[in-house]
DNA sequence: CCCAAATGTAAACGGAGCATGAACTCACCC
DNA sequence: GGGTGAGTTCATGCTCCGTTTACATTTGGG
């Protein structure tokens, strides 16, 4: 046994150092630098395995390193599962080069990511930084949109000071809409992003959940979720020209009526 | 100003995103993918230069990408400076491989980091994720044409600061015309491109929609959609020749008030 | 000035798309 | 096993808006 192994065991006594890993087994290429940095790895084969591990009371891990280079679908499923936990843990995703562009709309599923192939030192450095900053108040823990408040840590929601008693799917749907206020999402997009890519169900499900959300928001705020006919739904009175003032600086030599000067930053 | 510049100013799909960069100039290797992703780069040579830029009121940047591969000392100095700002901005650090281990003790100086050399797509993806998790609103994609503003994400439209309540087909038609300003489209072309290639319907449908659009644009802006007799419709360059359709039609021999410089050659 | 073609205008029909209420499935718990 | 609550699906009615149709108006050529 190396001295590194020994010190890891000594450290572990005082602090839990377990990282949840995917897939099972974790490729040695990444398992080794993590182990060398003093972490213990608990590999799981997917979301189901993680769930059963949790049910059996094995909840000691303090973070997750998910490798999505081989099975992106299962990796994303696992990410989504981990995000549902009452006590979310820092989640690091490893993706292949050609899939970097795919991350764009899935930012909510992970806290940090690596691009494979990567320098051995990067992985533990990134985990370290992740743990450091999750202890910091950098990340937003609430989403506010007008009278609407979503607490991402406690999975609570409120509107106009009143608490909203939302179910899980209701919360997830509202949260997703609220993370991109104003943007219109098709039902299909919502099913993919909120229900999951492996979900196959009717699009009317979205309608029903929107309806329940509106009911719980109350008549006063029901209009926060707007229907865009033939397209989908969006949250709220989107202020759709917040960048106009920046644009105006570059267009100050434009002539003619209706120029940026008299354009107001409107909110509807 | 060239005609190309004019048209670019009138119509653009904008993501106004200024990033502070170090060093000056930013290495093309990283500047290019960031520019390609729609960011504007403001390079500074160090903390002092950033400070003077701030004093001169140039505070438009919304994030910073600091490359520490060449001058780690100055880079760290710049990081510290940015951290002292009243309104902190997301800060991404680029370090060389052999310096990854150095980061451990400086976690507080940056929000995220990259290890050089890196995949070109990683940089914008990381910036994107950084903005997402720090709660920065991602700028919306809009099309502007004079007083007309179309928000592609929210399916909203406005004219001269006033919101336009458009139906789905109205919006799609206006959007298509606005993405090719000045170009004349036959009714058949519009039916194909806006309604769909498999659409079989009367050409008068276009007329009716144009009429409704003009009505909603208001008398002041109704001329934005111009009729070209025996041909079709176009979204006009009415800023400089609002009085006469005839003049706009005969662009070949025109000697009008706008001058040749303003004549837009760009018919795409 | 007249006529024909092209376009503007108004109204009405009909269907697509959505809200709504209720029933159904499934998991979990006492 | 009954009960409860969440998620999903189904059926129905309704509103909106895209399309058509008919008619008025404009345009341009002879």
Give me the CATH architecture of the largest domain in chain A, please.
Answer: 3-Layer(aba) Sandwich
The assembly state of the depicted protein chains is homodimer
Distance, first to last CA of chain A: 66 Å
Task: Assess the beta-strand content of chain A as a share of residues.
Answer: 15-25%
Order of strands, main sheet of chain A, comes to 2-1-3-4-5
Task: Explain the overall architecture.
- Chain A has 268 residues and is α/β, with parallel strands linked by helices.
- Chain A folds into two domains: 3-134, Response regulator (Rossmann fold, 3-Layer(aba) Sandwich); 142-235, Winged helix-like DNA-binding domain superfamily/Winged helix DNA-binding domain (Arc Repressor Mutant, subunit A, Orthogonal Bundle).
- Chain A has helices spanning 3-14, 28-36, 47-55, 72-84, 122-134, 168-179, 187-195, 204-217, 244-250, and strands at residues 18-22, 40-43, 63-67, 91-96, 112-116, 142-145, 148-151, 156-159, 162-164, 185-186, 225-228, 232-235.
- The radius of gyration of chain A is 22 Å and the shape is elongated.
- Mean pLDDT of chain A is 76; it is low at 1-15 and 238-268.
- Chain A binds a DNA duplex (30 and 30 nucleotides) through residues 167-170, 201-202, 204-205, 207-211, 227, 229-230.
């Amino acid at each position: 046994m190396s001295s590194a192994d020994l010190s890891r065991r000594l450290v572990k006594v005082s602090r839990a150092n377990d990282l949840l890993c995917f897939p099972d087994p974790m490729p040695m290429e990444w398992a080794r630098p993590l182990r060398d940095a003093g972490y213990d790895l608990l590999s799981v084969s997917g979301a189901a395995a993680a769930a059963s591990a949790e049910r059996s009371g094995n909840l000691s891990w303090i973070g997750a390193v998910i490798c999505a280079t081989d099975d992106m679908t299962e990796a994303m499923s696992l990410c989504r599962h981990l995000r549902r936990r009452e006590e979310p843990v820092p989640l690091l995703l490893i993706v292949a080069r050609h899939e970097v562009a795919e991350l764009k709309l899935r930012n909510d599923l992970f806290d940090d990511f690596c691009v494979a192939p990567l320098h051995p030192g990067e992985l533990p450095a990134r985990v370290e930084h992740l743990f450091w900053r999750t202890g910091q108040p950098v990340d937003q823990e609430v989403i506010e949109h007008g009278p609407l408040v979503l607490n991402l840590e406690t999975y609570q929601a409120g509107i106009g000071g009143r608490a909203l008693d939302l179910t899980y799917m209701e919360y997830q749907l509202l949260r997703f809409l609220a993370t991109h206020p104003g943007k219109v999402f098709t039902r299909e997009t919502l099913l993919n992003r909120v229900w999951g890519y492996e979900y196959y169900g009717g699009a009317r499900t979205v309608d029903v959940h929107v309806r329940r959300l509106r009911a719980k928001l109350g008549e006063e705020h029901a209009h926060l979720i707007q229907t865009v006919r033939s397209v989908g739904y969006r949250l709220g009175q989107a202020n759709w020209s917040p960048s106009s003032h920046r644009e105006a600086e570059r267009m100050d030599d434009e002539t003619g009526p209706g120029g940026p000067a008299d354009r107001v930053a409107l909110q509807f």
